[in-house]
Specification:
Length: about 240
């Protein structure tokens, strides 16, 4: 299990300081470590839970879109790791249908990429050359610390705020503008779905989760049916 905590108050600040101090402490007086080398620091904690979790089984859907804002990425990398493991390493044991996954993360600083850079790189490397295509898009709203950008396979970093609706359309290949008549909608309802379904999971501030819900609704009935149906799971938080 991996727990991620962003420094926001006294407790997380003390935990962060403890980890850094322990990492910098030499193993022995006669042994020196490389300044770039980091080791795990043991901490005794009591955990109550876990509670909840994703209400969507991502493996049942052909396309998966994961959207996170800031430290909301404490939720989505675990989902990405799980679906890559099931589809690539475990060999789709339950008939997982997922063929494409888009991981989108919006942050304020380029330095924040380091929070999950190693984990995302490991996941992306595992999926290379497999039957599962994954793309990682990191959106940065402030050009701070460009030297902190780390290499992650199949990852692009953009200096802009993302549109969840645009992400959804690009990931699914659906049209961004659509108008339809009742006749067309009724015809599509009677026909079988052409797609394998789309799962959208988002985690972040309320503004992001509301935008995600609006983006899915904006697709309309026809586009949703073309894709085989769209489901949404939301994890919201407030600071």
């Amino acid at each position: 299990m991996i727990l991620a905590a962003r420094v926001k108050g006294d407790w997380t600040r003390e935990l962060n300081a403890y980890a850094h101090n322990e990492q910098d402490f030499p193993i022995s007086a006669s042994e020196k470590r490389d300044s770039d080398q980091r080791v795990d620091v043991p901490v005794h904690v009591m955990i109550d839970g876990p509670y909840g979790g994703s209400s969507v089984d991502l493996g049942q859907y052909e396309i998966v879109l994961l959207v996170a804002g800031g430290s909301g990425a404490t939720f989505t990398p675990g989902l990405l790791d799980d679906i890559v493991y099931r589809c690539v390493k475990a060999g789709r044991p339950d008939g997982e249908r997922t063929t494409r996954t888009e991981f989108a993360w919006c942050i304020k600083s380029l330095g924040h990429i380091a929070w999950f850079a190693q984990m995302l790189a490991d996941i992306a490397n595992l999926a290379l050359g497999s039957s599962l295509e994954i793309r990682i898009s990191i959106f940065v709203t402030c050009l701070c610390g460009p030297e902190a950008v780390q290499f992650i396979p199949n990852c692009v970093v953009k200096l802009e705020r993302p549109s969840v609706y645009m992400l959804l359309c690009e990931t699914t290949g659906l049209s961004q503008t659509h108008s339809s008549s009742d006749v067309e909608e009724n015809s599509l309802i009677r026909r079988s779905h052409s797609g394998g379904g789309v799962a959208v999971c988002t985690s972040g501030p309320e503004s992001l989760t509301i935008e995600t819900g609006d983006a899915v609704a904006r697709l309309g009935v026809v586009n949703a049916l073309k894709s085989g149906g769209v489901v949404v799971h939301v994890e919201s938080f407030a600071l």
